TrEMBL record:
(S)-2,3,4,5-tetrahydrodipicolinate binds at H132, G141, T142. GO terms for cellular component: cytosol. This is 4-hydroxy-tetrahydrodipicolinate reductase. Homotetramer. It comes from the Bacteria. GO terms for biological process: diaminopimelate biosynthetic process; lysine biosynthetic process via diaminopimelate. It is an enzyme of class 1 (oxidoreductase). Keywords: Amino-acid biosynthesis, Cytoplasm, Diaminopimelate biosynthesis, Lysine biosynthesis, NAD, NADP, Oxidoreductase. Pathway: Amino-acid biosynthesis; L-lysine biosynthesis via DAP pathway; (S)-tetrahydrodipicolinate from L-aspartate: step 4/4. Residues 102-230 form the Dihydrodipicolinate reductase C-terminal domain. It catalyses: (S)-2,3,4,5-tetrahydrodipicolinate + NADP(+) + H2O = (2S,4S)-4-hydroxy-2,3,4,5-tetrahydrodipicolinate + NADPH + H(+); (S)-2,3,4,5-tetrahydrodipicolinate + NAD(+) + H2O = (2S,4S)-4-hydroxy-2,3,4,5-tetrahydrodipicolinate + NADH + H(+). NAD(+) binds at E35, G71, T72, T73, A96, S97, N98, F99. The active site is at H131 (proton donor/acceptor), K135 (proton donor). It comes from Marinirhabdus gelatinilytica.
Amino acid sequence: MKLALLGYGKMGKTIERLAKEMGHEIVYKKGSSLEEGTLTRAEAAIEFSIPEAAVTNIAHCLEKNIPVVSGTTGWLSEYDDMVQLCKKCNGSFIYASNFSIGVNLFFSINEYAAKIMAPWKEYSAGIEEIHHTQKLDAPSGTAITIAEGIIQHSEKKSWTMETPQDNEIKIEAVREGDVKGTHTVAYVSAIDTISLTHKAHTRDGFAKGAILAAQWLKNKKGVFTMKDVLGI
Ligand SMILES: NC(=O)C1=CN([C@@H]2O[C@H](COP(=O)(O)OP(=O)(O)OC[C@H]3O[C@@H](n4cnc5c(N)ncnc54)[C@H](OP(=O)(O)O)[C@@H]3O)[C@@H](O)[C@H]2O)C=CC1
Ligand SMILES: O=C(O)C1=N[C@H](C(=O)O)C[C@H](O)C1
């Protein structure tokens, strides 16, 4: 496929390396001070930039009728606007807080655990995410998706990074070293703890999932999620 990369940082470069190994061609690259190639040659755009740039990048692709896969986190207050724009342009759009197949399986395990744990009121759920010190947003998009999975299957109503009320889930964000992304859900009672952890060893899983999503999106119209891509 002919791919555009919107954002050419850690993720953009990882996607470029893996996409080339898979036989795809990068026809356009854009960073804050870089623009190479021609966007309109692209069959799909893969967008991993910064929260402030994501909406403009996504809207630009939709308006130019280029299918767009976005993994940028921290801009979701404007997600519904992008859904509306995609419909108006009859475009193709996938956003995921995490494109790794392992994390998407973890999301399903998390929802299953939330259902099982819901009646057992002596356990209280909490989430911890650990990332590298360059990460701009907190909590991670993945931690928010995990919290939403618990909220969907329990009496919890929202998440917080402060001291939680009874109907809130606490998310703790830790920034250290070059951690690629570690997410833990823990159910803690006075006598024991049940915890589930996903730990990314490299960024390759995120990048492979985004390339898979771009391939899957070919010839499809609408707004999709990684659950659609993976059929889970
Ligand atoms: N959904 C998922 O699976 C994953 C999501 N992410 C998310 O992806 C995003 C990027 O992560 P990462 O690559 O690690 O971050 P980086 O900081 O390494 O890269 C971000 C890049 O965006 C560039 N940029 C800035 N402004 C624009 C613009 N207007 N248009 C295009 N590019 C621009 C920056 O350019 P410059 O270097 O010149 O400043 C930089 O190269 C983050 O939001 C992160 O949370 C990360 C991993 C997985
Ligand atoms: O910024 C990162 O690095 C990551 N961001 C995503 C998030 O916010 O969930 C996904 C992954 O954990 C890496």
